[in-house]
Amino acid sequence: MRSDLWGEILQLSAEHLLLVLITMVLAIAIGLPLGIYLTRQPAARPWMLGFANILQTIPSLALLGFLIPIPFIGGIGKRTAIVALVLYALLPILRNTFVGIMGVEAAVCESAVAMGMTDGQLLRQVQIPLAAPTIMAGIRVATVTTIGTATIAALIGGGGLGVFIFRGVSSLDTVQILAGAVPAALIALAADGGLGWVERKLSPA
Amino acid sequence: MAPVEFRDVSYEIAGRPILLNLSLSVEAGETLVLLGRSGSGKTTALKMINGMLFPTRGEVLVDGRATTEWDPIKLRRRIGYVIQEVGLFPHFTVGDNVGLVPKLEGWTATDIDSRVNLLLEKVGMPPAEFRSRYPRQLSGGQRQRVGVARALAADPPVLLFDEPFGALDPVMRLELQQQFLALRQDFQKTSIFVTHDVREALMLGTSIALLGGGRLDVMAPPREFRLARTDEARAFLACLDN
């Protein structure tokens, strides 16, 4: 029984990590370019940031409820859970990319342009390197939040550490709840520490 | 052909005129000082030379070609630019900051290297000591020296200065002004220099264009400028008396 529980903790932790990993890869792949796009397109800012803000305010249970009936991305299982998690992770990444790039000192960008840098050179050689700590902070916040939020994946058959928690809640079994909550908290702490270290490495010393 | 020429240039933002019918030309090797109060349009005029801004009416010619017809990247790479805030890249070393435009232009590493060393030497920043430092490890005056070296890096025929020494203490300012004169001897560049300081204008300019309310008020060499009798010129010259 004891060793069964440990085995399941390991297996569900791995599943949980995979959920988080896929979510973050997708959220970064969407949020980062979108954030950069916003720095180039003032007209798109209000509605796109507004949209990302509104997404964040939808309660997670409601969002899953909305997603399940949608063809292709909906249904029961991991895929729907990942779509919901990506939508939540998007805002911090998008916003920090945008804020980080817009926060690069105006005089630095002005001289870059005046020296004849193309927009791509300005972005790659100046704006992204200088905004990197801010962008990384957004990724860190999104990752830590996702590790917590990913427990709801279990509700729609997405697996992960939420399986323990929902099982424990329905059977009033504290050990089961802790078996889900403690590893999730440890993963979140480790991710926060690790990504925080990367963030400091990216800051100009 | 004049390296830089303004032909009846006007500029307005949302219907508010900033520059009105400005016509002037800058001869090769000359230092034209654009003198004026805050809001007189002098920085606007400067930014039209390297295509950071374009005229609402009229045209600015660089080497006889309107700035609107230049590829902006090509135009800017042959015009050095120095601003008051300096704008060095904080994540680049001094050497990499100075070597930036040569690198963009595809110079070889050896050529960039010797050019950077030469220029740092010329602006009084021994490369052995300063080359691998970061901008945050420099004083304000040292940063601006690097800014000047950076502007000279790819040997551009024209240099633009926007109140480059305005934020420095008086002693440092004088040192950099003297350095400017020494560099002019060495490099013989055409320069356009924006300032609101009439002393600086008289010291550095071979020609002074006084702007008032977006119009050209007086344009004259320093010696004649001292005798100018328009209201705006008198107001500026009065600053010399105390």
Description:
- The complex is a heterodimer of chains A (205) and B (242).
- Chain A is an all-alpha fold.
- Chain A is built from 8 helices and no strands.
- Chain A has helices at 2-40, 45-57, 60-67, 78-102, 106-114, 119-149, 162-170, 174-202.
- In chain A, helix 6 (119-149) runs antiparallel to helix 8 (174-202).
- Chain A is elongated.
- Chain A starts with a helix and ends with a helix.
- The mean pLDDT of chain A is 93.
- By secondary structure, chain B is an alpha/beta fold.
- The mean pLDDT of chain B is 95.
- The radius of gyration of chain B is 18 Å and the shape is globular.
- In chain B, strand 4 and strand 5 (65-66) form a beta hairpin.
- Chain B starts with a strand and ends in a 5-residue tail after the last helix.
- In chain B, the strands form 2 sheets. Chain B has a 6-stranded mixed beta sheet with strand order 6-7-8-3-9-10, sandwiched between helices.
- Chain B is 38% helix and 26% strand.
- Chain B has helices at residues 42-49, 72-77, 94-98, 100-104, 109-122, 127-130, 140-152, 170-187, 198-204, 222-225, 231-237; strands at residues 4-13, 16-26, 31-36, 57-62, 65-66, 79-83, 158-162, 190-195, 207-212, 215-220.
- Chain B has 11 helices and 10 strands.
- Chain A binds chain B through residues 105, 107-118, 121, 125-126, 129-130, 204, and chain B through 50, 52, 72-77, 79, 81, 83, 85-91, 100-101, 104, 134, 136, 150, 160.
Taken from the alpha-carbon principal axes, the silhouette of chain B is: globular
- Biggest sheet statistics of chain B: 6 strands, mixed
Summed up, the helix count of chain A is: 8
DSSP, total strands of chain B: 10
Percentage of residues in DSSP E strands of chain A = under 5%
Strand order of the largest sheet of chain B: 6-7-8-3-9-10
Structural class of chain B: alpha/beta
Low-confidence stretches of chain B: none
What features would you highlight for this structure?
heterodimer, A: 205 residues, mainly alpha, 8 helices, B: 242 residues, alpha/beta, 6-stranded mixed beta sheet, 4-stranded antiparallel beta sheet, 11 helices
